[in-house]
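Suppose you are handed only these lines of text.
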Amino acid sequence: MLASRRTGATVDGFQESSRTVKEKSQAGTDAKHIAVIPGDGIGQEVTAEAIKVLRVVGRAAGRELEFVALDWGADRYLRDGVTLPEGAVEMLRREFDAILFGALGDPRVPSNQHAADILLGLRFKLDLYVNARPVELLDALLTPLRDRTERDIRFIVIRENTEGLYAGVGGFFKKGTPDEVAVQEDINTRKGVERIIRYAFEYARRHGLRRVCMSDKSNALAYGHDLWQRVFAQLRKEYAEVESRHLYIDTMAMELVRDPGQFDVIVTCNLFGDILSDLGAQLAGGLGLAPSGNINPEAVSLFEPVHGSAPNIAGKNLANPLGAVLAGAMMFDHLGWTAEAAAIREAVRAAVRQKHTTADLGGTLGTHEAGDWLANYLAKQGVSSPGARP
Ligand code: NAD
Ligand code: IPM
Ligand code: MN
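From them, the structure of the protein bound to 3-isopropylmalic acid can be written out as follows.
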């Protein structure tokens, strides 16, 4: 049982506030309460740096921010068998404005059960139906593509985040025998497909983007993705000012590599979005730089880097913290702190261009030092036009 969020652990790089937590509705000011789930492996390291940076920006803008660490992850699971504690979802909804998440995945938990319960559990139970994964090349030197510049690689993958092959519907028959059958159902609901495609069109409209591309595999998946086709055909009529098109997912993967400049907004199902977002991340310099937002536009949302727990580099001060930092910027945007978010993005751009980065981006800094550089830069620059109130 989760009595209160006071059960959260202290994590390197930040501490829980000692004051009693107010309920969101009683807060009275525009103070924001952020639940932090650093998780496993490099999730711990990059989250600590992200918080360091967010604190500096908050201070520079005169914002009140409180971070509360929750120790959900492999250590806790191995210690007491708890993955997502009872009451966790209600507590997050009640007490927090947003969630900052590191990564989950640990070689000691080969089933990945804790990640399924915590990360996928929160996506489903908080109904975070949008997984927004922006891809932006910050320096032409970083792309593995020849002759491509910042102008060519700037798009967003809008991934459906609550159904598809991730819904967990299926089972085994005669498990472990030579006659074994394993079934994994692909769940596509009209409501789910419609709201994610609509979100993509609305995103384009809101950001003045011209092009939306829906990608599916309706030539082979004749039921589930036929629904995507029909919903897309219906919705595109409502957004006549947006250029909308469709590509099968195999062609989409190819086109993203051949000419990424043709895309602004890509909308696709859960599994395809997972894969395309790693491909996109690599086009812009690698997983270490890629942020994401697991969003329900009307409710508490969760922000995380796209990468995982990277056991191969965990605990070595090698991980790039910029994906986590940019996830923090997405969180600020979501909270209405847009000037603060813009300041963070500008600092990340400066770090990348001036090579004050970790080795994956060609720099010589460790995780901590890359975080320190950003924090110092932002402390000096300040936030140009902080909103007094969102
Ligand atoms: P990964 O993203 O953890 O690592 C893939 C490769 O990218 C590795 O070589 C790693 O060293 C490198 N990398 C990743 N992030 C980096 C960073 N910030 N800086 C520098 N290099 C970085 O993916 P994986 O190895 O397939 O998975 C490892 C574990 O993470 C698995 O348990 C997997 O299930 C889990 N995972 C979790 C999430 C999540 O929590 N959202 C996402 C992806 C994978
Ligand atoms: C991601 C990850 C997760 C996913 C895993 C850890 C279940 O790869 O966030 O991209 O597939 O969604
Ligand atoms: Mn992934």
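What can we learn from it? Confidence is low (pLDDT under 50) at residues 1-28. The radius of gyration is 21 Å.
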